[in-house]
Amino acid sequence: MPVTLEGDKDFARELSVKNKALRINFNENIYGTFAEIGAGQETVRNFFRAGGASGTIAKTMSAYDKDFSDAIYGLEPQGRYVTEARLEAMLKYETDLIEERISREKHPNKLFFSYANTVATIDFAKKYKGHGWLGIRFQAKPKQEYSEIIIHVQFHETNAALQQITLGVMGVNLIYGAFYQHDKPRELLKSLYDHINTDKIEIDTINFRGPLFEEVDNRLMSLQLVKNEMTQAVMFAPDGNMVLPASILYKKNILTLRGSFRPVTKVNMSMYEKSLELFIKEKKVEMENTVVIFEITLSNLKSEGEIDERDFMARADLLCSLGQTVMISNFQEYYKVVEYFSQHTKERMGLTMGVNTFIDIFDEKYYRHLSGGILEAFGKLFFRDLKIYLYPLKNKETGEITNSDNLKVHPRMKELYKFFKDNGRVVDITNYDPGILDIYSREVYQMIADGEDGWEEMLPKAATAMIKENNMFRKISEEQ
Questions:
Q1: What is the chain's mean pLDDT, rounded?
Q2: b/e map 27-51, b = 16+ CB within 10 Å
Q3: Tell me, what DSSP letter sits at residue 392?
């Protein structure tokens, strides 16, 4: 249960930043350290200003100098200090130190914590907006094993002083949430933006760890980040753990496949495999420096109303089991995906898509919000020598195969399409298996949901086995 405090109702009326700090300070059991590097000691400043901090703060420090930092927390092998590894080292060092120096016999009811951040604010040239890691390692009961909440943020304000203030407020929200909202992690997540506009700072990674969060699935928490518009995209690795997008995408060649993957079929995997074969034949593209992203959009997850989290987890589990990196995004238009990736790499990019999806991107209705309309969108989409790898479409009735040579776009778009095709931006996938072109995810899904047989051979063997073993995509009424 969360920590309780006599007189809590007095604070519940208006939980300002000051009131949150006061509630922590007036709890005689909460006691810990603050270690903040890179943006001043903005979080602990709020606790000092609120008053009563002597009962909360054991120590506060800011080891700005790298040599001092290395002497305290250890050497960084790659010489980088704004990293998750550095934050973890800081948190562990500080909690170990407080356990060593504060007697449990003298203070049997103390709940120890360590708050830390390591950040880089905007540079003088305003070329880099800045980013950072912040986290807390804490106890909810005396002598309990520590739990952690780790966050990565991207700054969007264009002034270092304002970034520092925002960071300080989010730090208070994090500490307060850890002690008073850890039993409601979704509410905790939303509360991180108390008194902060979402356009000021972006949370693109969050991980809950430890005994207090054994029931928390960080993939579902990452979904909440996108759903609550705290970030535009999140990623998780094949092991299911949430990962920092920049760490996956930095200076990489990127091939992206968007879909519903409900479930992932042999066609999806064929699109991936065949387009990857073509992609790595491009100049300056090598397999060891290439990452493939399977993207699911939020609008796709909401296609039937509110997001079904069980359905989402089934899709994610299947893709991860096949060794894929998954991205959940709030990007409806493809050019926004390319813009997002361009923040992290200048290397080559490719998009894999089917004929119907490709035709859709030539529909002007998707670009009415842009002053330059479809021309502006296509300028953003193709400016990086991007190529589209086109998977053919089979007409079920006639058996006709549609590819880049015979597809039909709106008459007004014919010349635009011809321009990109003639310049080699559209590449047909030709070495496909004709025998799987009749497989459609939505039909497979309906067969599974209705308990029909015959879908098993339409999916990769590993996906089929997992769906059967875990009873995925079945109608809830059937299971009850």
A1: 91
A2: bebbbbbbbbbbbbbbbbbbbbebe
A3: P
Sign of CA dihedral 411, 416, 417, 422: positive
The C-alpha angle with vertex 375 and arms to 371 and 376, in degrees rounded to 5, equals 50
Q: Which neighbouring-strand residues pair with 296?
A: 328
What residues form DSSP beta bridges with 388? 351, 426
Give the pLDDT score at 304: 66
Asked if the model's pLDDT at residue 477 lies above 80, the reply is: no
Spans of all domains in the chain:
8-216, 246-470
How far is residue 23's CA from residue 283's CA, in Å, rounded to a whole number?
A: 59
CA 355 and chain centroid, separation: 29
Q: pLDDT, tens digit, for every residue of 145-173?
A: 999 999 999 999 999 999 999 999 999 99
User: Between 3.40.50.620, 3.40.50.720, 3.20.20.370, 3.30.360.10, what CATH number should domain 246-470 receive?
Assistant: 3.40.50.620
Q: Please, are residues 258 and 338 in contact by the beta-carbon 8 Å criterion?
A: no
Predicted local distance difference test score (pLDDT) of residue 174: 98
Q: Which residue, 134, 138, 181, 135, is CA-closest to 30?
A: 138
**What fold characterizes domain 8-216?**
Maf protein (3.90.950)
Strands 111-121 and 130-138: antiparallel
- The answer to whether residues 125 and 160 touch, using CB atoms and an 8 Å cutoff, is no
Instruction: Give the CB-side neighbour count of residue 124, counting CA atoms within 13 A.
Output: 0
At 75, list the tokens. Answer: 């050497």
On whether the CB atoms of residues 135 and 116 are closer than 8 A, the answer is yes
Radius of gyration, alpha carbons of the chain: 25
pLDDT reported for residue 105: 87
**Cα 243 from Cα 459, distance rounded (Å):** 27
Query: What is the per-residue DSSP string for 455-466?
Result: -GGGS-HHHHHH
Q: Is residue 191 very low, low, confident or very high in pLDDT (cuts 50, 70, 90)?
A: very high
Integer Cα distance of 365 and 214 in angstroms: 45
Residue type for position 278: L
CA distance 210 to 214: 6
- Number of residues in the chain: 480
Q: Each residue of 233-270: pLDDT tens digit?
A: 999 899 888 899 999 999 999 999 999 999 999 999 99
Helix, coil or strand: residue 416: helix
